[in-house]
Amino acid sequence: MSKELGKLRRRIREIDEALLRLAKQRFDLVREIGEVKRNHRLPITDLQIEREVIDHALSVQAELGLDAGFVKNWINSLVAQSVRIQSNDTRNFGIYQIFERADELKAQGKHVIRLEAGEPDFILPESIRQDSKKYVDSKEYTGYVSSKGLNDLREKIAEALNSRYGSAIKSDQILVTPGGKFAIYAAVMAKISIAERAVILEPYWPMYSECVKHANGRVDFIHTTLEDNWNINLEKLASAFDVGAKVLFLNSPCNPTGMTVTRHDMEEIVELGRKKKVTIISDEVYSAYSFNNLCSILETECEEFVYVNSFSKRFGMTGWRIGYAVADKGTIARMQQILQMALTCVPGFIQKTALEVLKNDPQPFDDFAQQIKGRVKVAVNELRKLPVSFSEPQGGMYLFPRSNVEGFDSSEFAPRLLENKLVAIAPGTAFGDYLNHFRLSMTTSPENIEAGIRKLGEELQKT
Ligand code: PLP
Asked: Which residues pair with 310 in a beta bridge?
C-alpha cells in the first residue's frame, strides 16, 4: 500500500515539474513577445488578446470537465505574471534615483533646483504648531487611540466634505490613515485578491500599480495621450470593465498631467462602474489645487467607491503622515482592520493637530493654493519658448510636457540635466510608457521654476 502510494506521489511530483517547465517556456515566450512590443512601440496589455486567451482556456476547461473557478484563477494568474514580466522589463522608476542624487548634490553644498519632488514648500502656521505642542505634552494624545481615528476629527472631516460637496457622509464612513498613501494601500488590500484586476489610467502615480502587485492582483493599463488632451476613452474603459475589473483608480487632479475628470466623464464612469460592480478608488489628494470646477466622486451617485484625501498637499503636512478615506461602512471596517494590524493607529497628537488645521482660518492655505496656480503660469510661459508640447494643467502641482526633440529619452535626459545643470526633474517613464515626457513640480519659487526651465531648454539643445 505504502509502495503504491509512494509511486502515485512520485507521479504527482513529475507532473508538477512538467507544469513548471511548461510555465518557464510560457514566460520565455512572454519575454520574447515583450521585446517585439517594445521594438514596435506597442502597449504591453491588449485586452482583446487576453479575452481570447481566457476564453480559450475556458473552452479547454469545458472539454476536460475541470472546475471553472480553478481554471479562471489559474489562467488569470498566468496572464497577470506575464504582464508583470513585460512591465518590469520596460518600466523605469527613475524618479527615486533622481531624488537621491539631488539630495547627494545638495549635501555637497550645490544649489540644486528641485522640480522633481511632490512636496509643497510650505509649513503650518506658527499658531497651529504651538497648539500641536500642547497635544504632544498630554498623556491622552500620546497613548494609543482608536484605530479608526478620533471621533471629533472624523466628524469635522465629514462636515467639511458635506459642506463642500453637498454629500451626506457620516463620520463612521471615515477612516483616518497615515497619509493618503496608506488609505490607497488599505483600499487595495480590502478590494483586490489574487489575480483580480484593477484598471489604471496611464500616466499614473506609480504607487497604484505597486499596491495592486502587492495584493497579487493584476493591472490593466489604459494609455492616454497628450494628442488626445489626456482624455479618457470611455469605450476602452468599458471593455476593460467587461474583462472583469474589480477596481478603477481615478486621480483628479492628476499627478502627473494636471488634468481633471470632467463632470460628464465622472458621471459616465460612475454609471459604467455601477453596471459592472467596479469599485472606484478616487484619489483626490490634489483637490485643493484646482483651477476649474472640479468634480468629486462625492458629488455623484456612486455607491461603490473609496474616496481618498490627505493633509499632505493642501496643508503642507507631508511629514506628519495624515490622510483619510471615505467609503461604505463595510469597506471602512476592512480597511480599519488592516490599519489596526499594521500600525494600531495614527498618533493622537497628529490627529489633534489636523483637527486644529481644519478649524483654522483657511486663508493661509488658500493663499498657498493661489501661489501654486501662479507658479504654473510662470512654467507655462517659460515652456512656450522651448521645443516641447503640453496641455495646460487644470489642477494639481505638476506639468507633464513632451519633448519634440528627435531621439529624446527622458530616462537618459533627467540624470544628464541633473549632473550638467543641477536641475532635478522626473522622467516620464516613472509614470508609464512616456519616454518623451518629463514631469515638472511646482513646489519651489517662481524664480527657481523660471531658471530651472531655462536651463532645461539649454540642455535640450544638446540632445
Ligand atoms: N496620491 C497621489 C496622486 C500622490 O501624488 C500622493 C503623493 O505624492 C499621494 C496620493 C499620497 O500622499 P500622502 O501619503 O503624503 O498623503
From this structure: 323
Cα of 233 from ligand 1 centre, angstroms: 25
HSE-CB of 434 using CA atoms within 13 angstroms: 32
220/313 Cα distance (integer angstroms): 28
> Which amino acid type is present at position 183?
A
Nearest CA among 172, 201, 177, 200 for reference residue 187? 177
Whether the CB of 283 sits within 6 Å of ligand 1 = yes
What is the maximal distance between C-alpha atoms in the chain?
A: 84
Ligand 1 center to 313 CA (angstroms)? 8
Q: Where are the alpha helices (DSSP H) in 250-408?
A: 263-276, 329-343, 348-359, 363-383
The three cell numbers of residue 355 are 483637527
- Pick the atom of ligand 1 nearest to 182's CA: 14
Binding site membership of 181 for ligand 1 (Cβ less than 6 Å): yes
Query: Edge-to-edge strand order for the sheet containing 398-399?
Result: 398-399, 438-441, 426-427
Cα torsion at 272, 273, 278, 281 (round to 10°)?
A: 130
- Dist. CA 32 → ligand 1 center (Å): 35
Q: Give yes or no for a contact between 239 and 47, defined as CB atoms under 8 angstroms apart.
A: yes
Report pTM.
0.85
CB-count burial class (<10 Å; 0-12, 13-18, 19+) for 110:
exposed
Residue-wise pLDDT tens digits, 172-196: 999 999 999 999 999 999 999 988 9
| Residue tagged 496572464 (cell numbers) | 79
Residues of the chain below pLDDT 50? 90-92
- Is 441 close to ligand 1, i.e. is its CB under 6 Å away? no
Distances (CA, A) of 429 to 384, 404, 412, 414: 23, 16, 10, 10
Is the backbone of residue 192 left (phi > 0), alpha (psi -120 to 50) or beta? beta
Number of alpha carbons in the 13 Å side-chain half-sphere of residue 40:
8
Residue of 199, 219, 185, 171 whose CA lies nearest to 279 = 199
Give 166: exposed, middle or buried? Use CB within 10 Å, 0-12, 13-18, 19+. Answer: exposed
Phi, psi of 245 (to 5 degrees): -70, 145
All three cell numbers of 127, joined, read 499658531
**297, 258, 270, 293: which is closest to 395 by C-alpha?**
258
Task: Give the model confidence (pLDDT) of 378-419 as tens digits.
Answer: 999 999 999 999 999 999 999 999 999 998 999 999 999 999
